[in-house]
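Q: What does the assembly look like in three dimensions?
Context provided by user:
Components: four
Sequences:
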Amino acid sequence: MGKLISSILIANRGEIALRIIRACKELKIKSIALYSDEDLRSKHVKSADEAYYLGPPAPAKSYLNIDKIIEIAEISGAEAIHPGYGFLSENETFAGKCEEKGIIFIGPTSAAMALTGDKMKCKEIMTKAGVPTIPGSDDILEDVDKAVEIAEEAGYPILLKSAYGGGGRGIRLADNEKKLREEFEMASAESRAAFGKSGLYVEKFLQGIRHIEFQLARDSSGNGRHIFERECSIQRRHQKLIEFSPSSVVDKKTRSKIGEIAVRAAESVDYLNAGTAEFLRDEKGNFYFIEINSRLQVEHPVTELVTGIDLVKLQIRIACGEDIPFQQSDLNLNGSAIECRINAEDPFHDFVPSVGLIPDCNLPYGPGVRVDTYLYPGCNVSGYYDSLVAKLITWGQDFNEARVRMSNALDEFIIEGINTTIPLYRTIMNEKNFINGNISTDYLEKYGILNLMQNQIKERTLKTSDSSIAAALLYSEFLKGQNPAYNSSKELSLSDWVRAGNTKNGI
Amino acid sequence: MGKLISSILIANRGEIALRIIRACKELKIKSIALYSDEDLRSKHVKSADEAYYLGPPAPAKSYLNIDKIIEIAEISGAEAIHPGYGFLSENETFAGKCEEKGIIFIGPTSAAMALTGDKMKCKEIMTKAGVPTIPGSDDILEDVDKAVEIAEEAGYPILLKSAYGGGGRGIRLADNEKKLREEFEMASAESRAAFGKSGLYVEKFLQGIRHIEFQLARDSSGNGRHIFERECSIQRRHQKLIEFSPSSVVDKKTRSKIGEIAVRAAESVDYLNAGTAEFLRDEKGNFYFIEINSRLQVEHPVTELVTGIDLVKLQIRIACGEDIPFQQSDLNLNGSAIECRINAEDPFHDFVPSVGLIPDCNLPYGPGVRVDTYLYPGCNVSGYYDSLVAKLITWGQDFNEARVRMSNALDEFIIEGINTTIPLYRTIMNEKNFINGNISTDYLEKYGILNLMQNQIKERTLKTSDSSIAAALLYSEFLKGQNPAYNSSKELSLSDWVRAGNTKNGI
Amino acid sequence: MEFKINNLDNILSGSISESSVDGKIIATINGKEHFIRIIGLKNSILEFILDNSYRTAKIIEFGSSYIKMIMNGEQIVLKKHSKLTEILEKSLAISGSSSGENKLYSQIPGRVVSIMLKSGDQLKKGDSVIVLESMKMQVAVKGHKDGCIRDIKVKVGDTVSRNDVVALIE
Amino acid sequence: MEFKINNLDNILSGSISESSVDGKIIATINGKEHFIRIIGLKNSILEFILDNSYRTAKIIEFGSSYIKMIMNGEQIVLKKHSKLTEILEKSLAISGSSSGENKLYSQIPGRVVSIMLKSGDQLKKGDSVIVLESMKMQVAVKGHKDGCIRDIKVKVGDTVSRNDVVALIE
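A: Here is the predicted structure of the complete assembly.
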């Protein structure tokens, strides 16, 4: 291994900034953090070797402020920039600016990023490279006959989508030609009225979809590796909640086959560094490429735990021009790992964001437990940034051991002051369809998981009612003792024992 | 796998009680804890499903009180008892009492324990079973000629030891026959004067010794496995401080060979459950069996991290009559793991114990880091029990990655209120002989590690002197602002900004 | 004494039946005797052993007829129960839903990204009035009752805190 | 101002040279200018950024001429330095070692397991006077000066706390 660089500026915040700082410490590279006004007291500022002030809280004025970040990189003498995920991580202008200034961007080249960022172009390249994509039109359709032709080829039912919609708006399902023609006319008219143009395209409708992705790495010598899959089907409104590896529906043969396709996809855009090829898998077991995420993924720890590879250190080494230090055949899938994304959202109230001071928190630990988080007692969860406050990751010899450890670690994880998605995950970890691997991207709705969670909380409250009544009795007795009005009463007051207990225990 | 038991009483305290509680939770077995008056607020009481009061703080009246523990086991309906390490874990009377009462003892049978506990008898059995032991006399020597004869066979230099000595007292080294005869006469006379009998024996003197042990497991069907070695040579006065696996001097062939010897040793005493075969290794690479520790070892997490096996769950399964679920050939050594025993002792003052309230503590975490501990902010470290307050264990793809992670985790580990051995380990993790594997049981003295630690602290203090002076300046300015006498002064007081900063940050 | 817990239907009961000076207490809860040993009370955290099991409760708030605590990570509100309070609560609930509060509060802090209704518009309970952005998510503040918008108190780009009044509905 | 830190030989210096109302300070430490931004002070924990690096110090004790803090897990004692204090300290050190304190304190809490000397015995500095057991280890309390035992204040089986007087030495 050659000489590495001596300093990295981390253009991010929160748990991922801390994750990158840890990698820097292990490689004896100086870590340089950035902070907005909102983040002066954040943990990444405390952990980094250096920290520079960036600007006001709003992302546009701080963590998305390309000019300011480049300026700090030059002032601080940073040799490289790690963008983390989110913010500028997939911004080709930023990557390009780094290239221009001679600062190493720890990620793909701006050219590769431009290709992976343009979904239509990327799909075209993949099709040429023999990577399977979701059957459908390659471009916008002006003609209903063309739509019918494609539908015949891909098979019904088929999805009719508007290029100007988004987030599910304007998606229509047609299960035969007659229906498709009707819907096309309606949708076309609607679209013309709203946007002045039709802009429709069709795509095969996939049932019982699983979202499965492959971790990739490719170095500057052109060596490409896939580092196995992650199962990411537990989602809410297309946001991943839980990820694990290996997937129960990916056997050794499929892993090699789809993994090789993923590597081919990376090659076809001359990809550099770590990335992720995302696929959808239908009920029949067909895999369809959807896109390459050209950055370190939130869920990368799952892969780290089953392979032993430190992906952030690997990213840094590749960015410094080193070759990937392993062959595809060197990799072993060791055990099973699960990640839960702990979000500051209230699962009992439609997942509204929950922000504010964390008076206290208790991080779980023990065999097979890893936490990546920026939380500490007294810290602040800001409404300006992402709701992810912690990632809890567990490892086990098999899925079941990892799952039980996750369930126990969730019980141990206490975050005071805000609502989080922990109760939801406590329910899922013990839900029979999850246990048996009966999952798909509509898992939450299909099995009424939110209702199940509500009912379980009620049951738990009832089960602990003896304890809560006891606490109430003890505390009100204590208050009586504090209140002089009660002191004259002949009733024995508990406060004396509470106090006695405190004295004994050195409080 | 068959049906397991429904409850386990844990006849221990501290981190090992917590470790066993975790295993119980994973297996959905009710955990029953015990506590002395000193431990009412201890974490194992808080974490267990049930907790029973045992007695006054002194071990003899609490955690060593066999009758009381058996009584609680019967009252609570415990189906099994896990003794942890220390206390009653190697007490054959206790194991026997459990057998008598029909309570499953999670450990070897009392019969096997009696054999492993008697070192002379055990050595005899091992010699018969073809297990190499340290060459020397099998019994006490009355005759100097016999001593000379054995010395000729074992080779000089040879150690002359008194059976009535102990802890290094009365050990003499002889490097030729003449010296041996002289020393024998002197030692014999001395011993006769002090104890009324001679009681001398000889043993081969081993140079540059390493202490290497093999983890064992054996089930009730007689299946025996070794679960690789642990290198335990970093010691202070025969107390292990740091353990790791694999050992840099054990190659694959040696691992199989000595591992098989360890299994043979276990078979020769009809050993049951998890145990450890301890060996000494001399500079020439010879291994000599010393003893079997018939319990779960403090350093078992090292083995757990390189094999993925949960040894406590394995213990419980074996005790319930299950067979070991893996063949010897199924085991893979995955990466490298190191453990540091964090003791409440002051390494700057001859390791005197340090006890009391822990106002605050910060446990390290992150990729590859595991902590087994009973510490929490506000807990108490008692002088009544063992000084081990935490075990810090790190994993890496190789020794170096594990070592660097350990070094960083030690930097992160803050324990307020007491002195600990953390500064010593920070020095060792970056000391070149340790890095290069030049270690032996006299490592601390041989390389002047304590002096090195003292010097490094001085250097660090000097290096951070800018920061400490800055802190002093800021704090004294703050005090000035607090004192009305200074308020009239024209000097600007920093306290205003401190307060301004606090307000901004919502304090 | 009788209690109601959170939204559970059951009416539960508890009282202290015996107590000795060394911190050991016998309580009768839902008709069963329980043995309690107090460990301590510090920073509103009450610790005790109930029938050989450790329990802890963090007391958040208390009043003459209720106590709010966190137990096992869940919030528990315990109300003293009596026929009278039940009747009172019911009548309050009825009056609350009919006339109710005019002020519409934001349930979260965030930045106003769009305003859906203007002064004078009619709305039904549940209709979106304004949309806030917090943590990269868009969250609607919805009408808490049927009525007519009298005033919108915020404009696009404003930052609001939790429980700020964003509109008046008549 | 001049400082001495722990047992370092160097004499160090520091003073605040500039300060503005928004919490930014310039200090001159050992001849170099440093830029400081205060983050906060809470529960005796002082947090600040020194030349773009985060620093924290927990203040343990302070007096008119010294300050004791924990920084990076290590205890730092900073003394204001002047020629006068140096002379005073030296003379104190001399008188301290010659006449000194009569009381022998236990440096740790523990149980007395044996008493090595009795009233009237002569001892040299460093001789073991009693042996305590703590955490399964035996630790000797050793004479802090040459002299003669006037009184042993403990008996075998006693429990002593840290800094308890265990003997008087004259």
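Follow-up: Chain C touches chain A through 54 residues (CB under 8 Å).
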